[in-house]
Amino acid sequence: MPSEGGSRREGEDLKAPGSNLVEWMRRLADRVAEKPAAFHWLRKLPEANYTATKARIRAVHDALGAPRVLDAGCGTGEFSHLFDPARYLGVDLHPGYIAFAKRHNRRHRYLCTDLMVWPDTGEQFDLVLVNGVLHHLDDDTARKLLNRAASRLASPGTLLVIEDVALPRPSSGARLVHGLDHGHFIRDAERWRALVSEQLPITRTETYRSGVCPYHLMLCAAP
After folding, report:
1. Which domains are seen in the chain, by residue range?
2. Global pTM?
3. CA angle 113, 119, 124 (to 5 degrees)
4. In this predicted structure, what is the pLDDT of residue 1?
């Protein structure tokens, strides 16, 4: 029976022959994830340089004109270049990732903090991006983070959520990537929509592939 947060491998049976190899690869992936440079460059490979995701984020950005952007969980700053440095703030709790982002995007602004405890300074944003964060969190914690993210929106504002999605019949590549992922809460599209729509109305959803990796996109509007 899945937990409230969802099974880590919902719809995906990883207990197949060679599972010892999978466990070894998972431990290796864990070590790589702690090295920002290695994580940044190696993670691009199964994602085909995130081309599909970048195109979708850029389209949302451009439709809003020149939005003030909060990248909530910006990681190594992979997507920072899509945004005007003068109107961008990337937030992440991993000091190594933030240091890497600052070195490679010197004109952009970054803050190393936990969004859950980040004091409200009154700064508001027209676009808040939550990309690849929530599948690390159980339902209750994900709700709290979404609430915190939504509270930073200007009125009107746009929340863009993109998350790894569990498919009924995933490809072998997707199975492998999800098997190595740190996130324990990769939900299916229906559960993602139910979780996110508790915070804000969803105006558009899409399931797509970035390289071999399946994602679910949810665009939300704040009044």
Report:
1. 19-222 (3.40.50.150)
2. 0.84
3. 95
4. 33
